[in-house]
Amino acid sequence: MVFGSPYSDQYPKGVWDGLKRSRRGKDIFGPLTSALNATRIYNHVLKHSKGYWLFSIAGGCLSCYALGTACDAFWRHVNKGRLYIDLPYKSPESDD
């Protein structure tokens, strides 16, 4: 049998020890991974090159817009009353 073959049971002892120390079932992102796998998003979108690129570009644009909007809203909240837009506008008096 060839080393690395899934059908071989003649792995070195170090490989078996490494498999015993596996992180399977201990990962904090396990529920998230299971939820994403349940959506079958990989089979429908990410498996094909066009869908992958479209998903990546659209996801990047949307996340950039969302992050920018959130940062602007936070900035306006923290600096309320100190921004130019918050200054009261007084129109100049005419000399009629």
UniProtKB/TrEMBL annotation:
Keyword entries, A-Z: Electron transport, Membrane, Mitochondrion, Mitochondrion inner membrane, Respiratory chain, Transmembrane, Transmembrane helix, Transport
Membrane-crossing residue ranges in chain numbering: 52-75
A cellular component annotation (GO) from this entry: respiratory chain complex III
Topology of this chain in the membrane: Single-pass membrane protein
InterPro entries in the record: QCR9, QCR9_sf
Locations listed in the record: Mitochondrion inner membrane
Alphabetical list of Pfam families matching this protein: UCR_UQCRX_QCR9
Gene Ontology biological process terms in this record: mitochondrial electron transport, ubiquinol to cytochrome c
Similarity comment text for this entry: Belongs to the UQCR10/QCR9 family.
Designated name of the protein: Uncharacterized protein
Organism: Babesia bigemina
